[in-house]
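A note from the maintainers: we've had questions about how concatenated examples are separated. There is no special marker in the raw files; a new sequence line simply starts the next protein. For clarity in this README we add a label.
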Amino acid sequence: MTVNCKVKFGLGSVLALVLALPCVGQENPLNDAHTAAPPPPATPKDLKPAVIDGDVAARATSANGGAIRVNVDMVLVPVSVTDPMDRLVTGLEKENFQVFDNNQPQTIKSFGTEDAPLSIGIVVDLSGSMQSKFTRSRKALSEFLHTCNPQDEFFVVGFNDRPAILVDYTSDVEDVEARMVMLRPQNRTALIDAMYLGVNKLKTAKWERKALLVISDGGDNRSRYTQGELKRAVRESEVQIYSIGIFDPYAPTEEEQNGPILLSDISTSTGGRLFKVLDMQDLADIAERISEELRDEYVIGYTPSDRKRDGQYRKLKVRLNPPPGLPALMAHSREGYYAPTQ
């Protein structure tokens, strides 16, 4: 067996996609966008995305989002593995994994890796505090887009006071890059609303594998959806969420202090992660690294011992039995899934 640790940075390196835009023009960036409000949650709210301005909207593309997949007989679970230095670990075998469904051990029936096309929602913070971080972040966006599978499709959600679809589904990298140059960060932060919109947008995705990539520098201070409503939507989806936080060292408000907790909780529950940027110089490498992680996942298949089709939420846990000589490794997978109903 050959086990590989892929190195992109040294100790303390971070994983993320960094997406941001340059400061051009003076208009509200969300005034020049397609709008698409998510469906109402359990308690309907009047969430209204930004107003359309015909100039940019007329040029926008109208296009046709690691998930747990449950079919009649089998649950398929994407898993990424890292070592203590946060390097990706490849080359593991089926016997190095254990799967527990509602705390009951399961028999692994299929095992492999997968590099299928992805539908990716990109959620970009356009609030005022992002102004000084856009130039380098935009370069990282380009790096990520150019290292992805040519068949991948993307859409972009921008948010400040309200979220809006800035770029609809497309596989044209140059189209995405060109449409971002008109934007300028300002106003407050409706982070939860934006993630809710992204998760719902991925329901219409072309590909079965779906990911949401979030970049933000602070906590939510404007959303109408609650964190609980967002968590419910994420649980019901097949979306893997990665977040990157460019947090200020001394958060002046309670919302900013809670930002890392919010992003970490949501991302971890889906098998993704939150990573904090400590050095802005690392953003291009981070962008390449997130692309690799999405394509170096193990896919584990098992038939649940509990065959009831009751639609209930089931907790999922993946444990590792590393080969001799390797340090303790960490598996990243979704925390659970809903059983089928028929």
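[label: protein 2]
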Amino acid sequence: MKRRIRVIIISVFAIAAVSLVVTQFFQTRRTFSINDNMFNVGVGNAMDEVIKQLGGESQAIPGQTSEPFNYQELDSLVIEQLLVNGIDIHPVVGLYNGTERSFLYSSDPQHEQQLEESPYRYNFHPAGVVSNSQFFIILSFPSAQLFLQRNSNLFVYLSFFLVLIIAAMFIISIRAMANQRKLDQMKSEFINNMTHEIKTPLATIGLACEMLRDDTISQDSESRKNFIGIINDENQRMRVLVETILQSAKMSNKNFRINPKEVDVHQIIGKVAQSFKLPIANRGGRLTTELHAEPSVIVADELHITNLVYNLIDNGIKYSSDAPDITVSTRIADRFLELRVSDHGIGISKEDQKHVFEKFYRVSTGNVHNVKGFGIGLNYVAQVVKLHHGHIALESELGEGSTFIISLPLE
């Protein structure tokens, strides 16, 4: 995905997300206002019914007669009618004499100041009789505002949480698309490189066969032996390439299992080194083995360990700009057999070292694109090491070469 398109998509999403949050904010404020109005209407309807019921009874006028006023009934009626109108907040209830500016009753004397300032004030005429004094039933809802705001905030937090989830999914989708595009590109490069890798030995084998058909060459035992050696080497090279691809594909299956048995790592190194003797000599290089591990026998899959050593040496040859100078060494370190393959090639940058063991990844510095390969060898090596419960490390500096360190358990 082009960078410009990604920027446009991300910008559009950011604007949409901000717009959604702003819209939700104003919608929440509007909802809070509606809830507040509905709350006031509910309280008003409840108090109309309370006053209606109290007015229809023969209640004594507070402070005007010797008969007691039933304040408990006042409390119960208020709570009952509020519940009928969908309000489950218990208010502080007060009966106020407006003429004398004093409370005749308060369900919570500590809140008389809030009662006096409360807007929920309703005229009350006991038994429907208008007296010389002006009476009010006053309600105070200390937690009403907090209750309404808490309900509204719940939607704000929920909306914000959903926006975060959408944003996270959007970012994940963008990254997945970018990774998918990168993977498609790497696969295309892999197919191109693999085709080239296989065509080269086939062409060499074909040319050698044509030369062997020549009677003058076929009668020369030295030349015939040389061309047969070329065919054998190219056939071996192609076999390893195909085997690496097939085994790497098999290892992608979670149910893949190795076939461990006792193998001598030094013998494997010797066989692989012998197969590289001619190619290295043709480039004027050298392959040195320093085998100091005792014991050198481990429990491992011989096929995969052989391919591992082959890939590491082949990698060192490929990434040596001049005559390759490869050193393969072994030693025992903390119940592990440590295998080191070092070269004096072009080296690998710190950034590329983070990705060299990824499938299809090829180093993109120096003259690497002129190097044959398809970015699967080191990934295969890493998978083999993992299957054997070992460890792999890389030490490299640009222009100074690389050292791959493989640690395989002795038991």
